[in-house]
Amino acid sequence: MLDLCEDSQVVGQTCLILCDQLSEQLNSPDCEKDRLLFVNIIQQLLLYGKYRLENCTEDTFTSIQDCETYLSRVDLLQKLLFSGIDLKYQRISLSTFTDTQKSQQIRDKLIEYDRIELAIEVATKCNVDAVPAWVNWGLTLLKIGKYNEAKEKFRYCMTPTVKEENTEAKISSPRNPLPSNHSILHKIITVLESGAPSKQRELITKYNELKNRIKKPQTARTDPSSPKSAFSFSPSPKQNLIKQHSLDTSRYMQCMYYLQCYGTPDDLVKFWLRHNLIEDALRYILNAQLDVTVFQTVITAVLKTNQLQKFKEILLKIDPTQKKWNNFLLSTCKYFNNSKKYDLLLNFQEFMKDYARAGFTCIKLFAKAEDHQTQIRFLDEAKAYFVKASELEQPVNSPNDINKYMRGVNLQKEVSLFLMGQKNVKPLDITLFGAKDQKTRIAEIVLEMSNFDLAWKIMQEYQLEFTQIYKTAFKALALKKQTQAITNIMKGIRGMMMMEDEDWDELLLIVIGVYMNEGNDKNVAENFVNQLRKPTSKITGLILCKKLNKAYLEAVSTLEKTKSSDLTIIHTISSEARKTGNPHVADLCEQYISSHSN
């Protein structure tokens, strides 16, 4: 009937349709005995259709390709139908293999039944990923200890991160592994770490059955290069390696093979750390010149397992001079500093003999301390480190800098000891190691607590604006009516002859104003008026104390002595007299102004 049709294009398409329909019938129980016949008919139809299309003058390239594709899948269809695997959840036909999702389902079902070779054939002929099949095959071989066979299988599904060069395996792009490798490598290492290969009879039997089915190795998707020596890097003698971890020699070497072939430096380091091979991890980091973040991974691990002392001993064992570790240690210190892990930072700085920076770290710990005793302890430690820094053969800091740091520590200790001696005074949240405003505030606080000498030391050491500090302190003391404290501080100032008359009077006028306006203590205010030095300041003080009559007389006396024509002070007294209801003084002022206005 097909011979009667002259249109070869139609014949070819009809053959494809008929073959697909016939392949559908292969799923029927009625055709179970005639499956081979059906398969033979399908093959003949496809060959006939291809023949007609090849002799057609029109462009039939696509249709010919379809015939060839169907022919390649007829054998696959036959194998599936006679595989004995339950595929009733879907009807299999030639068109099934053109559906990617259905092909993947068939592949996964075959993997589930351990028909790995057939699963790979399905994946290859249907253009779906064969990696799951190769992975499953390789893992099965690992579990029964067939390590060499497993390596062969994994080469089809993993991309090596090493290349052959002068017989030495070198890791390429260590920080950027292919995403496909990571999950597979994790499964491989997990199997190898989980225990010795199982010797159970069913696993051995399963392997033998699998081996018997294999007649010819499949062609790999790619031709991955395999390193000539997978163990070219040896961080330390093998004997030492094997003694320290829990794996047997064979499994350990298999782990090293896969990690070096398909893993990254991070994978290697983490593996060694899991098995407490700290020295091997450190040697590898140093020799491979890895990033400092990998080194910090080791530090994190040793801290979790409380092996910091062992870690430092290994560093010294590898390089007693520590020069090779310098960049790693400095970066680690920077990390600890940024994350405010000052205890660890101090530990490493002491290990590095970086005493000056250790002193500064003690200062940071001092600032975080919540009680005076702890603060003083850290200050003592800081001083001790600065002393050590000055005694180094080649000190990093100059002697002048070290002396400056020590003076600051000593002064802060005096402040802390002084505050500790006061009742109910908690540590300050500011220190002399802070900015200028913090130093200024501490001087004010100390002065308010009547420690003139200590406040003076602070002002001198840091060259602070002492007049403003005294103003703030005097105002605070006046508000608390601590007259004796003010008097004592003034004695100290007077004894050191350190203040000009204008600054002296300005301080007293602040005190007088506070006592009059907020303290309502006129007698004390008047006593301070007597200590004013300049006549104009005394007049201002009398005005503040509402002693307007005395202020008028003092003003007139001053004007007469100086023969000044500036009547501003008389106007001020007159204005204040009218505000306070003192007409007598106001009239006197007006008369004086009137008589001296010319």
Automatic annotation (TrEMBL):
A GO term from the CC aspect? midbody
Q: Where is the ZFYVE26-like TPR repeats domain?
A: 467-593
GO molecular function list: phosphatidylinositol-3-phosphate binding
The highest taxon in the source lineage is: Eukaryota
Region of interest called Disordered, as start-end residue ranges on this chain: 214-237
Ranges of Low complexity composition bias in the record: 224-237
Any Gene Ontology biological process: double-strand break repair via homologous recombination
Q: What is this protein called?
A: ZFYVE26-like TPR repeats domain-containing protein
